[in-house]
Amino acid sequence: MAPSLAEPALPLARSQRARRTRAAILDAAERAFAESGFESTRLEDVASAVGIRRASIVYYFADKRALYDAVLAASIAPIERAVAAALAEPGPPPIRVERCIAAWLDAVAARPTFARLLLREMANRADDGAQPFDGHGGGIELAIRRFLLELRSRDEHFPSPIDPACFASAIVGATIAYVRRAPRARDEDARHRDEILRMARRMLGAAPNDTPEVAHGAVR
């Protein structure tokens, strides 16, 4: 007998449960890796937080390294999407850069575990010189650098004399250092956001008294 519309087919129900379980594992693992780092995090602790057995984690992820890689990819994906969407919007170059920064600030503030993961990756960077989140699309600094270099090469009116690497490092570093502090009040996030945007405008060559053009994702 065919399954009724009120009850999903068994394979579908299993698939939904599997997706929920995998998502729960990633969520618990992200918190654990952010708090304790890769070496100190145990799969048993992640399994306990989810309410499953260790063997169930291995069903979804071959080992701890595979789980860690999946956590990095999952944590950076929404931040990259937000930044990419901001960069894709039309407008004058300085405003587009501000939108990118605002998107970065909002996305990272909404996911503080990302800041802690990135700090741990930076502290434990490989001897081969690999950058944090290499292979996971996490090159936010690189994206900003390339964007500023592109603007400078094609837009003679783009005013900033600053080195793109210094600019990107200052924005990313200030944000990561701020977000890692917890707990934070909501108004603190707003003040930090405005201050970083003011700093960015000064670095881009705007007048010292200029105020940020971007307010919660919109242009004033």
Give the gist of this structure:
The chain has 220 residues and is mostly helical.
Could you please describe the fold and organization of this structure?
- It is built from nine helices and two strands.
- The chain is 68% helix and 2% strand.
- It has helices at 10-40, 43-50, 54-60, 64-88, 93-110, 112-123, 140-154, 164-179, 186-203, and strands at residues 214-215, 218-219.
- The chain folds into two domains: 8-61, Homeodomain-like (Arc Repressor Mutant, subunit A), CATH 1.10.10.60; 73-219, Tetracycline Repressor, domain 2, CATH 1.10.357.10.
- Residues 1-7, 207-212 and 215-220 have low confidence and may be disordered.
- Strand 1 (214-215) and strand 2 form a beta hairpin.
- With 220 residues, the chain is mainly α.
General shape: elongated
CATH topology heading of the largest domain: Tetracycline Repressor, domain 2
Q: Number of helical runs?
A: 9
What's the total number of strands? 2
Helix content: 55-70%
Look at the structure and name the CATH superfamily of the largest domain. Tetracycline Repressor, domain 2
Order of strands across the biggest sheet?
1-2
Q: Note the main sheet.
A: 2 strands, antiparallel
Can you identify the CATH class of the largest domain?
Answer: Mainly Alpha
* Broad structural category: mainly alpha
Please state roughly what percent of the residues sit in beta strands, choosing from under 5%, 5-15%, 15-25%, 25-35%, 35-45% or over 45%: under 5%
How many structural units, i.e. domains?
2
Distance separating the two termini: 61 Å
- In CATH, the architecture of the largest domain is Orthogonal Bundle
